[in-house]
Task: structure prediction
Amino acid sequence: MSLLSSARRTSAHPPTAPPLPDELVVVPARHPWRWIAVAAVLVLLAQFLHGLATNPGWEWGTFAGYFFEKSVMEALLVTLELTFAGAVLGFLGGIVLAPMRLSGNPVLRAVSWAYIWVFRSVPLIVQLLFWANLGYLYDRLQVGVPFGPGFFSVGTSQLVSAFGAALLGLALHESAYAAEIVRAGILSVDQRQREAAAALGIPRLRQFRRILLPQAMRAILPNAANELVNLLKSTSVVYVLAIGELFYQVQVIYGRNGRVVPLLLVATVWYVVLTAVLSVLQHYTERRFSRGYAR
Amino acid sequence: MVEIRGLHKSFGPLAVLRDIDLTMAAGSVTVVLGPSGSGKSTLLRCINHLEKPERGRVRVDGELIGRRRASNHLYELGERQVLRQRTGIGFVFQSFNLFPHLTAVENIAEAPISALRRPRAEAHRRARELLARVGLADKVDAYPRQLSGGQQQRVAIARALALDPKLILFDEPTSALDPELVGEVLDVMRDLARAGTTMIVVTHEIGFARELADTVVFLDEGRVIEQGPPAEVLDHPRHDRTRAFLSKVLA
Result:
């Protein structure tokens, strides 16, 4: 006790009384290994950054010269178009397919299940090549009575351009994944919410739009953002159809000048920048849909 | 007001309600008692057609619920018509089931706006009045998560009242509440009962039944074992099973 007596702040206690619990100083635990781990990580990081700055192989000058180059900018626009259109069409498809898969109608359920099964099974690159070669299977496409006479027809290759084939492939591929993301969101909402809405006589469509979907969005958004980033990078696959998107374009350039690494770096940094932009958008969208939730 | 005839409902092989006949007068309070699994909740859920009974009829205010009769057949109504019928029947859940992403006033105004097509401003004004009536005038813009259980249940009662229902069904409205919060919900229900609201209440609150019920119905294994005024059923039960149940609940 006498050792601690110097920590006493009041003289109200007799010298022999033990100090009150609130007079004891809490000493946080020491974490020596944390400091060692931090040091190790910092050394590795410094080495990496040093390499980035000093290794002439990165050719930062070439990188800077091409980063805002006109053809790269145009290709970037194509990548953005494919991503945006693919996401919009994909999620529209998903919003139709998910309720189908949850519906009481066994035919709709089976069709939706089969669609998702097929389009998740076929690799995107294989599917893209199929769509690009549609003209080989069907020379002309016509509108008319099923199995009966046709009204008008167009040549397949006129209707489905390379860009059209790419968009079609991305959208179909994307809707299968979007359908599962939307379905997971709907399933995440407590069944009793729908029951409460039904007990209040709220019309069916309004139940979905006003009660279920806003709550489902909380579960949908993180996965949808994930899928969107995935789609952004998947657009690089359409280079097989010789469409001038970002990855195709840098290949064209390094095919001409042989500067492979700095040009791959151009594409890489743009993908990173776009993903960062999407992450910021994700943050604000998630915040908007967390109304009424503590977290 | 409510007329139930020969109601039968089973889940798979399990018969939950068997041959239920009950009549509730307008403005009356009926308390349904019974051990868990006796079919009390299912009975309530059949009255607003959240469950579809296999046999029997439910009439509210003379209107057949969930079915349409033509000669010897009962035809299941379309969802739209059932939803319209439900706007006349309030339902208060054990677990409140407020919409967590909507504020108290939005929770209450939602059904009047979307089901009864009331103008938004009018629905919100009425919602505020109802919140004041259940003693929550200062919680208009609170989200359910910011409210205590008792407050949430009072918002849920206001939400049911917003449709001006002919009848309100309460499914164990105080069972999910901490004991000290039960009183505030029962106070609101007492006011409603005194104002002449037709109510059917599934509860274990014997005190509430004794004070406010016009009729107490005792259900066991899906059958009505006995019914009558509270003084009769609660104090002089005729049936052994009623006696056994009451002795457990009152112990």
Q: What stands out?
A: Residues 71-143+151-286 of chain A form a domain with the MetI-like fold fold (CATH 1.10.3720.10).
